[in-house]
Amino acid sequence: MEPNGSSPSLTKIERNGSSAPAIIEHKAFARIGLLGNPSDVYYGRTISLNIENFWASVRLEPSSDLLIRPHPTHDLVKFASLDHLVNRLKNEGYYGGVRLLMATCKVFTNYCKEQGIHLHNNNFSLSYDTNIPRQTGLSGSSAIVCATFSCLLDFYKVRDKIAVEIRPQLILNAEKELGIVAGLQDRVAQVYGGLLYMDFNKESMEKYGHGNYTQLDTGLLPPLHLIYAENPSDSGKVHSAVRQRWLDGDTFIISSMEEVASLALEGKRALLEKDYAKLATLMNQNFDLRRQMFGDASLGALNIEMVEVARRAGAAAKFTGSGGAVVAFCPDGQSQVEVLNNACKKAGFAIEPVRVVPSLLNEIDIRNQSSGNA
Length: 374
Ligand SMILES: Nc1ncnc2c1ncn2[C@@H]1O[C@H](COP(=O)(O)OP(=O)(O)O)[C@@H](O)[C@H]1O
Ligand SMILES: O=C(O)[C@H]1O[C@H](OP(=O)(O)O)[C@H](O)[C@@H](O)[C@@H]1O
Ligand SMILES: [Mg+2]
What we know:
Number of helices: 13
Strand content: 15-25%
Largest sheet: 7 strands, mixed
Bound molecules: adenosine-5'-diphosphate, the ligand O=C(O)[C@H]1O[C@H](OP(=O)(O)O)[C@H](O)[C@@H](O)[C@@H]1O, magnesium ion
CATH class of the largest domain: Alpha Beta
CATH architecture of the largest domain: 2-Layer Sandwich
Distance between the termini: 37 Å
Helix content: 40-55%
CATH topology of the largest domain: Ribosomal Protein S5, domain 2
Radius of gyration: 20 Å
């Protein structure tokens, strides 16, 4: 695994000798919610893209015992002192990636059993690594789950038995299993790659168990920038209160989520027409609606400041996910990008150009898309 390297190859299957069982390695990349998030949690719509800037990788090695290997830093259990332990919990919480790997194994196994998909009895060990800034709304959690899921698909050779459009829901189920409130957009972007328009309308979700996912030409995108800060926030916690209000029938939340969903629909049109002034307006509206629904305390002062620094430079800006990272677009071009770069550096925020991942579907995946994907 080389998450600190620079060139992300997608899949690696190593054979040590002609008869030795294969080691399988998969990557899953960070994603940006460009428009419509978080309405994906509420039968809405989003436009999202998978980005090469950051990724998680998972390695599966055949072994005699079934072993889930803790990550040396993300699942820290050895500390220099009590203060170190307490600080670590304060800044990063109790959890690392081990629980994600375990939940993925459980959801995968149960789904295969329910569907009558045969799994052989060989064991494996799983380890992971990631360079996705932790809990910054770049979908670091589902990248770990998605890469694990891909390893299991290949280890059990069942890629042709689990249709592509079903996989995001199974990946989401692994996090649901852990009580994390989240939606499908991350997982769809990570399974499909590229730029996607997603429609999670209730009818399709209930009838087929998935939304309608359309891959768009990544060439439609204008240059985008990613801004982020070391500021972990727990996306599950951020979402729980708003989710509860939505379940309780709060009319403000329900109508605002519908408005957010409609931004993705308008955004699709704007992208197809290359109407980037419109795109900028929609991105700003998206963040303003999130801010009204979630409230400043839940979004966090530093996260709001990231959006405001970008806006003061004249850029359109919104969260990539639930908070921690921002996607910015400079409608006035390169001179504005320079102003934005300087403003971010001055404020202590990292900024870098967005690099989009091309489609990740292989021939088996494309052949096995179910007919329910209208
Ligand atoms: N970089 C990471 N390393 C290990 N585990 C992680 C990492 N990021 C997220 N997780 C796990 O996923 C859970 C949910 O993370 P989440 O808040 O959704 O972050 P993100 O915005 O990166 O998806 C965390 O509580 C933790 O268990
Ligand atoms: O709030 C959002 O936009 C997203 O939040 C979660 O993503 P994360 O990267 O963990 O912040 C959630 O999983 C997504 O479905 C939401 O759209
Ligand atoms: Mg997450």
